[in-house]
Amino acid sequence: MTESTSATPTDLDARYGRGRRSRRPLIIGVASVVVLAGLAWLGWAAWVQSNPPVTSRLQGFQVVSPVKATATIQVDRSKPVEATCRVQAKAADFSIVGELTVTVAADSPRHQTLPVSVTTQRSATSVVLVGCTTKDAHRPR
Known about the structure:
Layout: H1 9-16, H2 24-50, E1 54-65, E2 68-77, E3 83-90, E4 96-104, E5 111-119, E6 126-134
Antiparallel strand pairs: 1-2, 2-5, 3-4, 3-6
């Protein structure tokens, strides 16, 4: 009987420390690309949401009579776009008793304060500014 002195390739790899080619760098690279893409999207979304084309604020309101309430709203636009602002008058039971949509023209001043008069069905106790939207931004601000 003769013994074979030839070693198999796996024995040589084990003897000299050569292992299979690791997939670890590939996995790290793919994970890095996915994380960077996610961070880029997060940055873009934060930038877009923090810079809306229109913002609005209710400065005050007054219930003038059982069928009328007035409010003062402030509208600020970052671009000369047409904005639509919605104001609601509410009763003591929180039901909507009057509503008005105000259109702010694109060629009007970008920062303005508007008086609003809402006709109500019955006596209102408060006036709420739902917010303003534009053609491209549908979320009231």
